[in-house]
Request: fold
Amino acid sequence: MFENLSERLERSFKILKGQGRISEINVAETLKEVRRALLDADVNFKIAKQFTDTVKAKALGQEVLRAVNPSQMMIKIVHDELTQLMGGDKTDINIRINPSVILIAGLQGSGKTTFSGKLAKWVKTKRSKNPLLVAGDIYRPAAIDQLKIIGSQIEVPVFTGEADTSPVQIARNAVREAKLKGHDVVIIDTAGRLAVDEEMMNEISSIKEAVNPHEILFVVDAMTGQDAVNTAKEFNDRLDFNGVVLTKLDGDTRGGAALSIRSVVNKPVKFVSSGEKMDAMDIFYPARMADRILGMGDIVSLVEIAQEQYDTEEARKLQKKIAKDQFDFNDFISQIQQIKKMGNVKDLMAMIPGVGKAVKDLDIDDNAFKSIEAIIRSMTPDERSNPVILNGSRRKRIASGSGTSIQEVNKLVKQFDETRRMMKMISKGGNPARLMGRK
Reply:
């Protein structure tokens, strides 16, 4: 998402490169390109114009005229305005009341059921809640079965109604069930339609009236672009929802919905979601999204993901082993597993400032460590813990057992030895550059 917009914005800022100062002429030329980039990203025309007008007014301020680097100053102004356009600060959901009822609304195909599962897992693991999923979509074939499968995957119970029970009654009964069984969050998945219609609106309005939800989240497919914004407005007029969820951000989308929706409905984007995996969801941080759009990476999110997988006790044990020069292939493969838990390797690399553009066209998938793992798993326990015994015949056997070549095994062993020496040097306060200089 936003790849094309990022490239267009980068080209527009180059107009100011080499300029001694920001003037009305060069800022107008730059912002003309910025406006075109926003329109091509499917941002509402009025919003794009208002955005560039605001940037222009700030860029021509006296304090900016004295800036040493006009291009960097313009990027800073655009970054700040993009952040404000998308909401400024992140907005949390209301789950303070017990039980907190969350109503999930949206069109058919927007990803409501999958998001309901992701949200249930999120409140369970990140907020230590005891959620209950409610199957309120009784019309779409297999919708209830889909939610049951998701519920079993994340170990969250799913409440379903009896035959011929209306969605309104199912929702009402589910809240009663939650109170009886100690569930402190109730997530109600509702039915959608291929387009907004009166019957659907009446039904979800009746559910809202029956259970008086503490939070209504409107789920929208980001790939629908400007149509997503128009649909959000219609839903908001009827439901007065609390926040928006943008799904399918991993698709081929231009990103206009993320940039426009806050301004049109005056409601915050609270979550973003991509893919089918239950952990592929995150809180929406406007400033971090602005960082990504402008090619600055998202190092804060990367650190947070790493911290979630970071085991303090294991790290302490590993540090001791490194100091005693006892780091072995068991530790090596353990670290690979930690990296894999963090998510898609290419997505993680894209969060590093300056790296996103470099890896954009590279084919990096989740199998990037496959051959390394195969080689290590083909070693005997003794070989993993005592790498020094890996002679020629052992390496030949490992290559055959892992389906790799002797050259690949030799390369891995060499990389492992260099890594171990460097880690030991760093742990003792040495300079790793000395090691590099020996090559």
